[in-house]
Amino acid sequence: MKVLVALFVVALVDVVTSQCACKTMKWANCDDSCSCSLTLTESSTQTLNCSKLVPKCFLMQAEMYRACNHQDTRSGGKPVETAFVDNDGIYDPVCESDGKFKAVQCNNTEVCWCVNSAGVRRSDKKDKNIKCEPAETYWVRVEMKHKSVDVPIDATKLRTGIENVLQQRYGLDKKLVSEVQYDKDGRLIVVDVKKDKDDRTTDLSLMTYYMEKDIKVLPLFWNGQPFEVDVPGTKVSMENVLIYYVDDRAPTFTMQKLTGGIIAVIVVVSLIVIGGFLVLFFLARRQKAQYSKAQAREMETIS
Ligand SMILES: *[C@@H]1O[C@H](CO)[C@@H](O)[C@H](O)[C@H]1NC(C)=O
Ligand SMILES: *[C@@H]1O[C@H](CO)[C@@H](O)[C@H](O)[C@H]1NC(C)=O
């Protein structure tokens, strides 16, 4: 009997502790009262609401902390593409108390740069006197390559499946999925997620960070369930993901400034050339008109 009771108690304790796991963050520590927190630095922890995704800025801090303490982070994959992609990898960010990124980031060094609301660098690296304007990421393009499947995938059903998984996994409002393009032969799925430019409550970086981990490394979710898109007849899993960020103001990389400058020069030169032609054209017309008027007058005087 005693053994049975003991077993029962053990089972009960088991159930209780498993109830106290943090659904949205596998690295969280949860106490007996199911309050969960995440260690961010040597001296700070963040209490979590485990029914919500954890802000990316906190996650990056936790990841740096774990990396420095030789705990598993499995954050190997660095994005490879250029363009406006996060190819800096991880840094130790400074966060606001609500988990938003400060606009200036320095990675604990004298070298600083500007980041957008998703914490992605949007300027050249400068010294610590750099001035940064806040920039909100209002549009992200998620490019995924899916693993091969046995059955052909219908684009419309794929879109529905993607909207569902984004809502279920990341709590994304389906209305924000503005476009889904599918290239069957390239196995490429392009998902545009756009919010209102003035919207400061939706944070698109929540979804993108969890998604990058889901596809490139390992899920951050406690249950570790893989990212899969349900379409009729099969589940589609992803091979890779690439994320483009679009902010409410253009980034200020030197390269883009240069191309912008060149475009401006080209525009100015073309305007001058077109303007010149127009002036010539009108001058010619006026001369012709004056000529014919003069002719008409001559005719009048003759007659
Ligand atoms: C946690 O987040 C959920 C969903 O947004 C919210 O309903 C709930 O009140 C939050 N809990 C706490 C303790 O803040
Ligand atoms: C930030 O610093 C860490 C270690 O100090 C380094 O590994 C990482 O590459 C740096 N990240 C950036 C974006 O400079």
TrEMBL record:
A single BP term in Gene Ontology: cell-cell adhesion
Organism in which the protein naturally occurs: Danio rerio (Zebrafish)
SUPFAM superfamilies from the UniProt entry: Thyroglobulin type-1 domain (SSF57610)
One of the record's GO cellular component terms: basolateral plasma membrane
InterPro entries: EPCAM-Trop-2_C, EPCAM/Trop-2, Thyroglobulin_1, Thyroglobulin_1_sf
Signal peptide per UniProt: 1-18
Official protein name in the record: Epithelial cell adhesion molecule precursor
Transmembrane segments: 258-283
Domain Thyroglobulin type-1 as annotated: residue spans: 65-132
Keywords: Disulfide bond, Membrane, Signal, Transmembrane, Transmembrane helix
